[in-house]
Every structure is written in structure tokens, then in C-alpha cells.
Amino acid sequence: MVVRILTDSTCDIPLEKAREMGITVVPLTVFFGNEAYLDGIELDNAGFYSKLQTSKQFPRTSQPTPASFQMAYMELINEGAEGILSVHVSSKLSGTYQSACNARDSLPDEMKKIPIEMVDSQIVSLGMGVPIMHAAEEARQGASLAELKTHLLDRIARNKIMFVLDTLEYLKRGGRIGGAKALLGNILSVKPILSFKNGEIVSIEQPRTRNKAYARIAQLVKDRGAVEEIAVIESDEAVGQQLVQSLKSAYPGEIPTYKLGAVLGAFAGPGTAGVMVITAH
User: Fold this and answer.
1) What is the mean pLDDT of residues 104-130?
2) Rounded mean pLDDT of the chain?
3) What is the dihedral of CA 274, 131, 173, 169, to 10 degrees?
4) pLDDT of residue 263
5) Are 30 and 39 contacting, i.e. CB atoms less than 8 angstroms apart?
6) Among 25, 27, 139, 271, which residue has the least CB neighbours within 10 Å?
7) How buried is 236 (Cβ within 10 angstroms: 0-12 exposed, 13-18 middle, 19+ buried)?
8) What confidence score (pLDDT) does residue 71 get?
9) What does each C-alpha distance from 137 to 107, 132, 273 come to in angstroms?
10) Cα–chain center distance at 7
11) 205 in the Ramachandran plot: left (φ > 0), alpha (ψ -120 to 50) or beta?
12) In what order do the strands lie in the sheet with 227-234?
């Protein structure tokens, strides 16, 4: 069975890597005022963070249209896909998942014969990106659609993202603060450790400095027990490497780093770094 993987650009898988692995990435759109850019295609990470620092306009984002997803599904089916696994950012953060569902449901009748399994990841960034990359590798090896979905959901269930923002201002302005609202009174005086619970952003702890926040993240990783996989996501290389160094006390293996994309960067802001950790069975 030929199964293809489709996702959206909030997965933070580098586009070149996605192409190599046969993963289709449908981009969200980032706006600065009236200027619109397709995430990762018309605006790369470096370009985005440069604009974020200099633009007088606060960025906003928009989900892909159902038509964008429908075109992507049809293209995969025409290329010979016998099944599609479609994995998306938490529906509590974006309408992207619903847009993808609408696209699937409105495909031409003859294409509806091809099964498309939808997954609301209830998470974001590498929290879905790493499981998606594993799914793409397993698809290459001939795994069935059902197997791929089961394995992907298992990795997501064992997955935790923790990230530290330089400021909560961007999250506040973007309206995605979720369960972390209680922090707003301390917006200037903490480097909060945030995570996800039931698809929403929640606050774990509120250290006063970045050093303390990273040291605490390392301890929280250690407390989770045996680690199957770990990766760092960052909007700034310096803070990303600082987090990597802190994590070495908890995990002796290689810690790959990935760039935080423009859509998430619009809400997290500059100076953000986080860790994705999958605990072992």
C-alpha cells in the first residue's frame, strides 16, 4: 500500500528535509500589515525574524484554505497514493485541522475511495513534526495506513514539548495564550516554561531568568525517565545552543536543533527556545 503523509507548516520540518522524505507540507500564511507571505516558501526563518524585529506591523497568521488542502490531496492521489495520513496543528490553536477536514469531505466522489486519515495532533511544532518524520520513514518501508496512524499517535502520546519565551507579549497579542493567562501580571519579570495540555498552551513554572528556566527544563527531562528521542527548537541560535548545553546533563546523546517557523514565531517572538522529548516505552 502506497501511503503518503501530509501536514502543515507549523510542524517545523525543514522544507528540504520534507521533500527528501516525501512529506507534503501545506503552508499557512503570515501577514505583516497588508503583505502576505506563505510560511517557509515566501518567507524563510531568517527573513521572518528580521521583519519581526524591524516591522511596525505586528504579524498575524492565517490557516490554509480548504482549496489548498484539496489541491494537495488530489495531487497525491493522482501520483498514486492509496492512502493519506493528514496530521495537523492542535485545533485549539488554529482552524487548520478543520480546513483540512473540509477539503477531504468535499473531494470528488471518485477520489473519496482513497482513505484519508485525519489527525488533530493536539500539539504543535516538533511535537508533531518528529512523529511525522518517523511516519514518513515507515511509509517508505511499506507500513499500512492504520499502522502509521497507530505509531504516530503513540509517539505523540509519549511526547512533551517545553519551551521558554523571552517575553509573553507576542503570545498575548496573538491571542493564543490559553491556560497561561495567569502569567500576564508577571509579563516582564519571568521567563516562563510553557507546555501543552489537551491541545492548549499551559504554564508549568515561572523562573526569573533564562538560565534557571533551562536548568529546570533539564531537570524535568531527567525526571521523565528513559528518553527515546530529543530535539531542540529555537528562533535564535544562541539561546538554542544554551538550551542544548543545559540538556546535556539530562541526555548524553546527540541533540539535533531545528528552527522555529514563522507562524509559531509570530506568537512566541524572538529569543524562544524549546525541547521536544519522547519518553521510551
Assistant:
1) 97
2) 92
3) 0
4) 81
5) yes
6) 271
7) middle
8) 98
9) 27, 9, 27
10) 10
11) beta
12) 200-205, 193-197, 159-164, 273-279, 227-234, 257-259
C-alpha cell, 146: 492504520
Q: Going from the N-terminus, what domains does the chain have, and what CATH number goes with each?
A: 3-28+63-157 (3.40.50.10440), 159-279 (3.30.1180.10)
- pTM here is 0.93
Three cell numbers, residue 265:
514565531
Distance CA 45, CA 41 (A): 10
Give the pLDDT mean for 184-188: 52
Closest C-alpha among 8, 217, 199 to residue 103: 8
Q: Where are the alpha helices (DSSP H) in the chain?
A: 15-21, 45-54, 66-78, 96-105, 126-140, 145-157, 169-174, 210-223, 237-247, 262-268
Q: What strands, in cross-sheet order, belong to the sheet with 83-88? A: 23-26, 3-8, 83-88, 116-120
